[in-house]
Fold this sequence. Notes:
Layout: H1 2-20, E1 25-30, H2 36-51, E2 55-60, H3 65-77, E3 82-85, H4 94-102, E4 107-110, E5 121-125, H5 127-141, E6 145-151, H6 157-175, E7 179-186, H7 192-203, E8 211-214, H8 217-229, E9 237-239, H9 245-253, E10 259-261, H10 264-279, E11 289-292, E12 297-303, E13 306-308, H11 314-318, H12 325-329
Parallel strand pairs: 1-2, 1-3, 3-4, 4-5, 5-12, 6-7, 6-8, 8-9
Antiparallel strand pairs: 10-13, 11-12
Helix pairs in contact: 2-10, 3-4, 5-6, 7-8
Main location: other
Subcellular location: Cell envelope
Keywords: Signal
Amino acid sequence: MKRIGIILGWLVMVILITGCNQKPKIGFLMDDLNNERWKKDKELFVQKVEELGGIAVVEVANTDPQKQILQAQSLIDQDVDVLVVVPVDLLEAGEIVKLAHRNYVPVISYDRLIKDCNLDYYISTDNINIGELQANYLTKISPVGKYALISGPKSDYNAYLLRLGWMNILQPLIDKGDIEVVVDEFSNFWLPDEAYRIMTNYLKNTQDVDAIICGNDALASGAIIALKDIKKNGNVLIAGQDANIQAVRNIVAGDQTITIYKPIEALAFAAADAAIKIADGEAPSNMNITVNNGKRLVPAILLEASIVNRQNIKMTVISEGFMGESEIYN
Ligand code: GAL
């Protein structure tokens, strides 16, 4: 009898200990992995969550907002403690927040803001500032001329924020009559084909363009191909974003003027750290700003991005270990 009592006692203890030590489970809902950067975000996020003692479960919606909602439900059913979301659609993802809250799961919006809902946290870069950095750089070189603006899709709030940044810089020059915006379009996806379509459509009537500001490097590469078709690559200023390998090579080749290097590692680590803290019942640190998402002031972390040009490639992406020198120059 005494023996059975001891065994039972042990069993209860084991159950209690394993129950208390359950690892925090973090769901990471991503849009797609088409753009190079997202593979890095994914890898770094999972690495950090695991390093902090948690389990990360990743789902990729491949640009389908409804699929992302189903994936959210599935992760909630798998008892995730926190959801980190790269929303496919800025509004439809509000449904994810509702589903999560019904199950007491807090939501962190990653890189892109989820609009008009009771979002808990937002971790990103200062996207208006990125737009300003791009436009500022190009207008310093060419304060007069014809500018084409190619934004990302309207389903991504970052596309609007970047354009806001561009216009902060361009508007005074447009008002002075120095700059004319000859193309101003939102693409359907963050893909090269989109910018290629937009630019070839413009270039079939005229070759008159001095600068092209693009929402990201994928779009910039499509614009460069359109310029190559008419042998004008290298003669038009081009700004992109993400510091992807092709863009940095294009900068070296003289076909692209700048890209923007986002601190992906800091972003992924900050999100992983916040998610684990929240799962452990603690308040996340460094949420030192709030961002209005149309419904509430969302506690946020906004990191700074930096410019990569032909002169500072070594001092930026290479020295930060974001890419190897041989990858660029081979
Ligand atoms: C945006 C992001 C960009 C780019 C793009 C394509 O939301 O801000 O850095 O990667 O998505 O996925």
